[in-house]
Amino acid sequence: MLVDDVAISNFMMKKMLGKVAPEFDVIEFTSPEQAINSIKESSPDLIFLDLNMPHIDGWKFLSLMNENNLDHKVYILTSSTNQLDIQQSKQYKNVIGFLVKPLNLKSLPDALKVMD
User: Fold this and answer.
1) pLDDT of residue 83
2) Mean of all residue pLDDT scores within the chain
């Protein structure tokens, strides 16, 4: 599952995932509200979550996941290199990594090893 309010970011990420792991079904959301409401139904194996979004940012999204006992694995995917963001991400048990945009095809396979 891709959750990013910028459609082109989701598009690029989906293309990269298609090249590295074509066997995965990728669902994408530009609305974090719709994404959080679909998690139980879609039960994604992995969520790539942007931090900087309007209305519900990545931190609020993670809090809503916790409140709803949704323990799906999450990679934070952001352009932020702020060490405070990295530290804050460690407070969430389902966050398994912090990836800095733009990702490249070389870094993505390592991120997907959690799926094995």
Assistant:
1) 85
2) 90
Q: What is the DSSP letter of 103?
A: P
Euclidean distance between CA atoms 107 and 47, whole angstroms: 16
Name which of 39, 37, 78 is nearest 57 in CA terms: 78
Determine how many CB atoms are found less than 10 A away from the CB of residue 18.
12
The whole-angstrom separation of Cα 59 and Cα 45 is: 20
Tokens of 88: 């804050």
C-beta neighbour count of 65 within 10 angstroms: 21
Q: Which residue has the higher pLDDT, 62 or 100?
A: 62
What is the predicted pLDDT for the residue at 79? 82
Q: How far apart are CA 40 and CA 21, in angstroms?
A: 23
pTM: 0.92
Q: What domains sit in the chain, N to C, each tagged with a CATH number? A: 2-115 (3.40.50.2300)
26: closest CA among 35, 80, 61, 71? 35
CA 43 from centre of chain: 13
